């Protein structure tokens, strides 16, 4: 994913950065709702969110926002600085999840569930690229990972793996859904996001020489 940012992306006007950020976050929340409705397995953080939803009775979106806020507090000892995108991430995704869940039908047959899962994962990759490409601040969970790496010198791959395994395990114990969707998300979300990033990443326009 980070490698894709070093490629030459299409220049996006600065006036489009905030709308791009908000669109990406909303689509991200919608993609989460598709995967939830598929009931075929969620990504690690959403397994945790679902588990917490089951034991608290709070909506999925509200739990997502609350967890994001708690994770954001963990930035303080890591001396990470949030951006507009960081705060927006906490609020917009949570609202988008709940709104989309309210609008989506609940599929019972396997085929529509598979389509929801596949569509949700692809949309998630696109949405992540869109909001990351706006370059207005990382999400709370991404910032936690990169902040810990910066403070400890540990590799990003190791830190992310450990964090997501722990989150997945806790979510599963709390009753979150693990399945084929969890595996598919893990192996495809990186390549999908990397493929979309060069198309939507904002870069400063270089002054004419």
Description:
It is globular and about 45 Å long. The chain has one domain. The longest helix is centred in the middle third of the chain and has 24 residues, at 110-133. Helix content is 71%, strand content 0%. With 209 residues, the protein is mainly alpha-helical. Helix 2 (44-56) crosses helix 3 (60-73). The chain contains nine helices and no strands. InterPro entries: YczE/YyaS-like.
Question: Which features characterize this protein?
Answer:
disordered N terminus, globular, single chain, mainly alpha, 0% strand, 9 helices, 209 residues
Query: What's the rounded overall pLDDT mean?
Result: 87
| Unreliable segments of 5+ consecutive residues | 1-12
Helix content: over 70%
Please state the CA-atom Rg, rounded to the nearest Å: 17 Å
The SSE string, one letter per element, is: HHHHHHHHH
Q: What fraction of residues sit in β-strands?
A: under 5%
**Major beta sheet, specifics?**
none
Overall number of domains: 1
Tell the overall outline.
globular
- Please report the total strand number as a whole number: 0
- The tally of helices reads 9
Helix/strand/pairing category: mainly alpha
Q: So what's the oligomer here?
A: single chain
